[in-house]
């Protein structure tokens, strides 16, 4: 498997985890955030499906998702739910950043850049909800050096 395909598979794994995690987020998020959670969940489902199609178009059979995903911390009320959303978007941004770095195909790089940007914007929205300052970072998705 090429570096590009490995990075795409890792991004697909992150999208599978995001879709699952947004189900947890929906269960505990503030009721005022229901529309936002539904919108972001739908975006991850669409990105997951597009990534599957991208892998298949490149001749790779995507790996199946895990049966379940454990949150990195307990989620039992709206604040941990919002923090989980930040973590999910951070993980997706990092995965798509890796695709940008590994992409040998220009259209894959463009898709990854779009996905990275979308995750960074969603992360910033959650950070704003949590009252973080600043709400974003320089080079979202890039590992801190």
TrEMBL record:
InterPro entries: DUF4439, Ferritin-like, Ferritin-like_SF
Domain DUF4439: 7-143
SUPFAM superfamilies: Ferritin-like (SSF47240)
Superkingdom, taxonomy of origin: Bacteria
Pfam family, one: DUF4439
Cross-referenced CDD domains: Ferritin_like
Name of the featured protein: DUF4439 domain-containing protein
């Amino acid at each position: 498997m090429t570096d590009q395909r490995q990075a795409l598979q890792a991004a697909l794994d992150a999208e599978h985890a995001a879709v699952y995690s947004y189900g947890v987020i929906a269960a505990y998020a503030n009721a005022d955030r229901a529309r936002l959670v539904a919108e972001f969940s739908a975006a991850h489902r669409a990105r997951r499906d597009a990534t599957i199609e991208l892998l298949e178009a490149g001749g790779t059979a995507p790996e199946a998702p895990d049966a379940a995903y454990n949150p990195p911390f307990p989620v039992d009320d709206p604040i941990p739910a919002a923090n989980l959303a930040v973590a999910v978007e951070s993980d997706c941004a990092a995965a798509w950043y890796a695709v940008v770095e590994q992409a040998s195909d220009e259209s894959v790089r463009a898709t990854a850049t779009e996905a990275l940007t979308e995750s960074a914007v969603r992360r910033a929205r959650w950070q704003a909800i949590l009252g973080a300052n600043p709400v974003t970072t320089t080079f979202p998705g890039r590992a801190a050096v």
